[in-house]
Amino acid sequence: MTNHAIENTNESGNINWRDYFSFSTDHKVIGVQYMVTTFLFFLIGGLLAMVIRGELLTPESNLVDRSLYNGLFTLHGTVMIFLWIIPFNAGLANYLVPLMIGAKDMAFPVLNAIAFWIIPPAGILLLSSFLIQGGPAQAGWWSYPPISLQNPVGYPINGESIWILSVMLLGISSIMGGVNFITTIVWMRAPGMTFFRMPVFVWSVLSAQLLQLVCLPSLTGAIILLFFDLTFGTNFFKPLENGDPIIYQHLFWFYSHPAVYVMALPAFGIFAEILPAFSRNPLFGYRSVALASFGISLVSIFVWVHHMFTSATPNWMRILFMVSSMLVGVPTGVKVFAWTATIWNGRLHLLTPMLFALGGAVMFVFGGITGIMLASVPFDIHVNNTYFVVGHFHYVVHNTITMAIFAAIYFWFPKITGRMYAEGWGKVHFFLTFIGANLTFFPMHPLGLHGMVRRVSSYDPQFQGWNVLISLGGFLLGMSTLPFIANMVVSLIGGKKVSNNPWHATGLEWTTSSPPPKENFEEIPVVNEPPYNYNSSEPIPEAAVTQE
Amino acid sequence: MRRIFNTLLLIVFVAVILVIARWIGDQAYSWMPTQATAEAKRVDQIFSFLTSVGAFIFLGISGMISYSILTCRAPKGDWSHGHPARSDIRLEILWTVAPAILVLWLAAQSFSIYQQLDIEGLAPMAHLHIPLESPADAATVPNAMEPAVENVEVMAKQWFWSFRYPNQVTSPELHLVVNQRTRLNLHSEDVIHGFYVPEFRLKQDIVPNRNIDIVLTPTQVGKYHLRDSQFSGTDFALMEANVYVDSLESYHQWLSQAAVSK
Description:
Helix content of chain B: 40-55%
CATH superfamily of chain A: Cytochrome c oxidase-like, subunit I domain
Order of helices and strands of chain A: HHHHHHHHHHHHHHHHH
Number of strands of chain A: 0
Strand order of the largest sheet of chain B: 3-2-1-5-8
Distance between the termini of chain A: 15 Å
Oligomer: heterodimer
Number of domains of chain A: 1
Strand content of chain A: under 5%
CATH architecture of chain A: Up-down Bundle
């Protein structure tokens, strides 16, 4: 059985390395294209952050020019959100969703390839703004007017207009992906794969992509109007010409808050796959966890104003959105408690994917709690736009979501490549990342409480101690990607070959060969088991155990 | 027997983290800057409360996860399954309802504190007091119904602050009288700026072409820094002003000197 699987790998090696540089319509090729491309953007976004942290080592502005500093944090945010987390999740879902639901491919393979191929040119376009006169956009990834409408060069081609075009293109790519994922999940499930037999990862992709479809057009519309104001002299958002800049903020956050859940839900889905597999227990409360994904989506559409508590927002709106924002804690709590109960009394294997998942889950509890605190209007009025907020959302986007992404890469690496990564180096990567992440993002909370505002290139010398610590943590975090990259490259070439299911996990993706053949399955599987069926009393077959 | 032991263990665990969480909440006051307004005291109260509740939840969940990590390890290479429990409807209802009640309680506490802040001059709702605190505590807060005594125009532009006083004196310094309600009319000439003095626990965006007022009562004489808190472009980091909270005499002394030197 096992030997057959390995042979199968070689025979079915009909994915050639050249395919990864072509307009392939195979969801597995596209998934890998997404993941590798976005990882390169992650490294670029990380380098931008290193320069920012280099500047903030000292209270004076002495490393980069102030306007370049503004460009650096604008592109850091834009790259990390629109070119790393969102498209990486799309890539992972591209690879996994058809396998997990027993489909041969995505519903619209050509649309799928187009959605991917928009990303590299859009990313290169964005980064090319470093080379033009006036440099990249400097108004932050939120790009509030009227500051974003102050065109320093006077030409129609400027950093801001390039930023708008690039974000618009990436938005179009995401909408194409959304249509494709929803159609695939609703219509292409294998026989017997009822909704309540789908893995929670698939549920989380479905709810996240529904959010994309409902909310993203709001951002696209807003930045089109912004482009008109910037380039053609319209006055939609210019306060001194009777436009309204606050409307832009509403339109922007109507997408950009749910965007956090577009990023976070797949991460929660990853935890829901990995925690059961490495504690050998069924996912506790499967139905409530699956439905909680939709609960989070639904509530998250009605919380956007909590980003605007200080933006001349009337009292009734402040109170309403305080209550709605706090309610996000309820479905999120359901997930966290379910993870805790899943590993309770389990048989834990602390291998690299599990370490990243546990580390990410614990740091998510921290980031979630500071999120609830920020929803409290009187407290938010003090810490809004300070480093407290920066610390909070990096606990979510890095310490939870990026940790989950690393967990996913290690977990599905054997499936995608047919080879095993080096476990020892995986653990080194985990501990460096976990220490670096806390060293970088925890001290931002006391800084914010003391009133250090965000987006500054120089600061009061009283804040230097914490800032040095944050910068050192940031450099450690930068270094921590090196063992990861080395591990991936070396294991891809010389890693030990693996069987179909090295983790003895449940789920259809583990029933096919590693890597899966073209069209995924020898024959379309029929599902007759509940998900996460880790409660069979049968012993694990001896042959499979020795394979480890 | 084992069941009783486990229950006892759970009770001890909850009690210990309750004590620790309470202690952390008490420490939270010291993580904040000086309290220079009556509002600051209120904000620190809600922060301390949120910190206690948050610490309890964080310690509870991470404690349980740590316990599992320490005690429930499978031998290497043994992939046999754990317990078969899939769900427990009572437990799931409990952990849906309990957080719902908890967040509504947090929201109610925040709302009650918010009503006691009298920060926005245009905010009628801020006067609907439902005092939840002890009357003795309330007596220290200046009466919110009292009209503001002083009016200062705050003008923000890239990247300077200036302040106009009732006698038409304009100065780059903000002077306020201790224990006196002052209304600040916030104006911006170009982009959105933000009025933020950490010691006042107050922040308000200043939107061009909109009349936005805040009202505040400083309670502590001293020198503070006003920071632009809404990103405003190249020299955003430099957009600061000195804020002086003076006694009534020194305020008038400064104001007349400023009028003469003008």
